[in-house]
Amino acid sequence: MLPENPTLEQYLAHAAELAERGAAAFAQANDPDALEAARIQFLGDKRGELLALQKALGALPADSRRDAGRAFNEAKTRLNAALDDRRTTLARSTSTGPALDLTLPARERWRGGRHPVTLVIDEIVGIFRELGFTIALGPESESEWYNFGALNFPADHPAMDLHDTLYLGEGALLRTHTSPVQVRTLQRHAPPIRILAPGTVFRRDPFDASHAPAFAQIEGLAVDEGISFVDLKATLTHFAQRFFGATRTRFRPSYFPFTEPSAEMDVACRLCGGKGCAACKGTGWMEILGSGMVHPAVLEAAGIDSERYTGWAFGMGPARIAMQRYDLPDIRLLYDSDIRFLEQVAE
Ligand SMILES: [Zn+2]
Q1: Could you tell me the distance, in angstroms and rounded to a whole number, from the CA of residue 281 to the centre of ligand 1?
Q2: Are the CB atoms for 216 and 317 separated by under 8 Å?
Q3: Ligand 1 center to residue 114 CA distance, Å?
Q4: What is the pTM of this model?
């Protein structure tokens, strides 16, 4: 204890001893309660020992107060530092795991989402499911016959060139479209047939802003007695109205080996409403899909009587549709798996 009227020497000795004793008491506190008790003893604002030391300053002769004041401040700084140290140590050791810092901000819970291309496929599938279509899947490595031959490709068609198709050797290749799934379905099931075939397809394309060597495709096929081009137009127009909210559609004559007649379907550009803008290259139309009546040779190759049955088919690229929907300038955004991009569009 400090005498009532201490000398400077007594004051300095007491300040040093107090700081030493307080720091030791803090360091020995084994839990938050013990630390709090020690804090009240030394730093309490009613009867704390440091407060008594501060009050004793006033009893010193005036010429001693500068040195005594410095000693007081040193004791105060040391005690507060020792208290903080012990608090941090105790907070860390109360956790059971290794070195868990309870002072870190909480981590936001990570929530997964569906990729934009998956979202597009799911929505297309949902619309056609209401019309009685089911999903059909097939292998990604195919034979030349399923990928080309059964689909009425002439033997010298440029798509079969090594520059366009990724061959695996011995008549095997990575499918360039999901059409082999149509052939396999026609072989396995008798009409009526209504299927959608979504899946990954492969082409020997450069990976640039508008091409990818592996990309998603979705095709549809309907085969039954008495099916005509009217069914094709009505169904695809219904789809375009549902999916794109398109007010206008148009069909343009086209050519595919496996359909006859063939048509490309466009929908009115949703950005300019048909007036013409940069997105639709001034035409007012967006190209959405290719379609046509299934070529009789394709039905016959799969063992279906083309005199009795007719059918129609279509194919589209969900990645291109996703690019339009989300206004993406580069298709590679969809394949880079960059979380910063995907977080903005995944659902
Ligand atoms: Zn436009």
Answers
A1: 7
A2: yes
A3: 28
A4: 0.66
**Would you mind telling me the total number of residues written for the chain in this entry?**
347
Rounded to the nearest 5 degrees, what angle is found at the Cα of 291, between the Cα atoms of 287 and 292?
145
Give the pLDDT of residue 95: 55
pLDDT value, residue 5: 82
Using the mean position of ligand 1's atoms as its centre, give its distance from the Cα of residue 290 in Å.
20
Tokens read off for 38: 């020690």
Provide the residue type at 222 as one letter.
A
Which pLDDT belongs to residue 147?
92
Cα 318 to middle of ligand 1, angstroms: 19
- Give the contacts of 247 (CB within 8 A, at least 6 positions apart): 241, 268
Question: Which SS3 state, helix, strand or coil, does residue 47 take?
Answer: coil
Q: Give the pLDDT of residue 153.
A: 85
The pLDDT score that the predictor gives to residue 39 is 94
How far, in Å, from the CA of 239 to the mean position of ligand 1?
Answer: 20
Element (H, E) at 260: strand 259-268
Cis geometry, peptide bond prior to residue 261 (ω within 30 degrees of 0): yes
pLDDT-flagged residues of the chain (< 70): 94-99, 162-163, 246
Distance between CA atoms of residues 266 and 220, nearest Å = 17
Cα–Cα dist 263/85, whole Å: 77
Distances (CA, A) of 203 to 31, 96, 224, 228: 67, 54, 32, 32
Residues within 5 Å of ion ligand 1, judged at the Cβ atom? 269, 271-272, 277, 279-280
Question: Distance, CA 249 to ligand 1 centroid (Å)?
Answer: 14
